Amino acid sequence: MKRKLNDDATMDGIMRATPATIRVVLQHGMLCVGCPIAPFHTVSEAAREHDLDEDQLRRDLEAAIESGDVD
């Protein structure tokens, strides 16, 4: 599967570009919204920091991005 999220994309950048991803972040128990580290953490780093399955997090974020839902 081709990754839609750039490996250098930050959590803050992802949430700003596609607000629908905020719901995914919160559902995974992450508090990236408003976190001072979010502008620097990539998806990989955030998944590792929160002890999450990175592949699942990426799939969920990509699904939110593809849905085009605007919150």
UniProtKB/TrEMBL annotation:
Organism of origin: Mesorhizobium plurifarium
Gene3D superfamilies: SP0561-like
Recorded superkingdom: Bacteria
The protein, known as: DUF1858 domain-containing protein
InterPro entries assigned to the protein according to its UniProt record, in alphabetical order: CHP03980_redox-disulphide, DUF1858, ScdA-like_N_sf
NCBIfam families named in the record: prismane_assoc
Signal peptide start-end: none
Pfam families: DUF1858
Domain DUF1858, chain residue ranges per copy: 8-57
